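Data availability (excerpt). The following record was deposited with the supplementary files.
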Amino acid sequence: MRTKVMAGLCVALVVMCLYMPQPCEAQYEALVASILGKLSGLWHSDTVDFMGHTCHIRRRPKFRKFKLYHEGKFWCPGWTHLEGNSRTKSRSGSARDAIKDFVYKALQNKLITENNAAAWLKG
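Predicted structure:
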């Protein structure tokens, strides 16, 4: 999926440079830097401390039916095999919903208590 997005952006840049005024080299560099900055912000990966366990969270973009969605994944490899997953239109919402999904699954498997889960399921 990333190669298709990058190929499409390259084609768009070439077309834009053909129709822009000739001294566009400075504009081209600023445009490319801006686009690459926005694209790199779509992918995110981090390690967090969750109830005394080291856990990982990942967010990545996904196109479905020409719409941008963000898929979130939350997992704690040293603690359990469970994974929390989500797909939302919101970047921050994908991480939040993945954590909530993980908490629901951990509660069902009796890894955490209802009191511990309540704090994470509120927000």
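Summary of structural features: Strands lie at 44-50, 53-64, 67-75, 83-88.
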